[in-house]
Design brief:
With 171 residues, the chain is α+β, with helices and mostly antiparallel strands. It is built from 5 helices and 13 strands. It has helices at residues 25-33, 69-72, 85-89, 99-105, 151-157; strands spanning 2-3, 5-6, 19-20, 22-23, 39-53, 56-65, 77-80, 94-97, 116-119, 122-130, 146-150, 163-164, 166-170. The protein has a 6-stranded mixed beta barrel. The radius of gyration is 17 Å and the shape is globular.
């Protein structure tokens, strides 16, 4: 995995501290220039949102992903399904949520699939529940309070172009 940032050294007359970012073209660049890579995809995140259902709310992070991400970070799905290519192509307002989101917004329920939640004024339908625990390393936020949505939906909802925070691959 690699993320954008700023340079730490000068290079060919350019100063250190230059910022650089990743975009969707980088996925194709990696695929075409590194034949050993089997899967390459990107993610984008949005921090500091609240998920709301009725009078219940919870601070969450949004992770915009492509379905290929599941080939790299293969979570157990506790209920429902993962995001798919059609969700991405149609910019669907669907999501896969972490366990704490279900516990907090739907007390007493074990399966929230089909339920709706609001995040930043946008209504999403829950299509899956992640079985990830809060243990271990997590690059896209706490898995218990992360809401996965299609990459294209995140970009459209938050006025982003094709920029990614992270480029992920597996060989």
């Amino acid at each position: 995995m690699i993320g954008g940032g700023s340079t730490s050294k000068p290079y060919k007359g350019l100063k250190e501290g230059r910022s650089w970012s990743l975009d969707l073209k980088d996925i194709d660049r990696v695929k075409s220039s590194v034949p050993e890579v089997d899967v390459c995809t990107g993610t984008s995140n949005h921090w500091g949102s609240s998920a709301v259902k009725g009078d219940q709310s919870l601070s969450v992070s949004l992770s915009g992903i492509f379905p290929e991400y599941y080939e790299i970070d293969n979570p157990r799905i506790k209920a429902g399904r993962r995001l798919n290519d059609i969700d991405v192509m149609k910019n669907r307002k669907v999501c896969v949520v972490g366990a704490r989101i279900v516990e907090t917004l739907f007390p007493g329920k074990t399966d929230a699939c089909g339920e709706k939640i609001q995040i930043d004024g946008i209504t999403y339908t829950i299509v899956g529940q992640s079985g990830r625990s809060g243990d271990g390393i997590s690059l896209n936020g706490n898995p218990l309070t992360t809401v996965e949505i299609p990459f294209t939906t995140l970009c459209r909802a938050y006025g982003r172009s094709d920029k990614m925070e992270m480029l992920c691959w597996a060989a």
